[in-house]
Amino acid sequence: MDEEQSERRQAEEEVAERGGSAGSFVAGVVFGALLGAGIALLVAPDRGDKTRRRLGRGLRRLRDEARDGLDDVSREARRELARRRKTLERLRDRVTDR
User: Fold this and answer.
1) What's the confidence (pLDDT) of residue 18?
2) What is the dihedral of CA 39, 40, 45, 48, to 10 degrees?
3) Alpha carbon distance 89, 12 (integer Å)
4) How confident is the model at residue 14 (pLDDT cuts 50, 70, 90)?
5) pTM of the model
6) How far is CA 75 from CA 29, 34, 48, 82, in A?
7) Are 88 and 11 in contact (CB under 8 A)?
8) Where are the domains of the chain?
9) Closest Cα partner for 54 from 67, 65, 41?
10) 87 pLDDT tier (thresholds 50, 70, 90)
């Protein structure tokens, strides 16, 4: 029973160590986008139409980068889910074999 608890605790610690990375990434992208747009508006040296075009290009580039980042996070989440499922299956098999 102690070994089982130790294995379960180890699995929970692994989950806790890896958690939050996707949320942190997305929050960083959103914060960076808002901050960048605000600074660009404050220090824009060009006419309004030129600034809007530049901001539009920047926002489209940011949108594409955010999509790529979300794709990466999604792919990593699926990999992590598969890894954790395998860990849980091994733990379940150990428990049922006893």
Assistant:
1) 60
2) -130
3) 14
4) low
5) 0.47
6) 17, 26, 40, 11
7) yes
8) 20-97
9) 41
10) very high
Nearest 5°: phi and psi at 35?
Answer: -65, -45
- Using CA atoms, how far apart are residues 88 and 84, in angstroms rounded to an integer? 6
Tokens of 43: 């220090």
Tokens for 14? Answer: 């692994």
Instruction: Give the DSSP per-residue string, 20-42.
Output: THHHHHHHHHHHHHHHHHHHHHH
31 closest CA partner among 60, 66, 78, 4: 66
Q: What are the tens digits of pLDDT across the range 57-81? A: 988 888 888 888 888 889 889 999 9
Looking at per-residue pLDDT, the higher value among 4 and 72 belongs to 72
Which tokens go with 1? 């029973």
Tokens standing for 37? 């747009």
Written as six digits, the tokens of 30 are 């959103």
Contacts of 18 (CB under 8 A, 6+ apart): 80
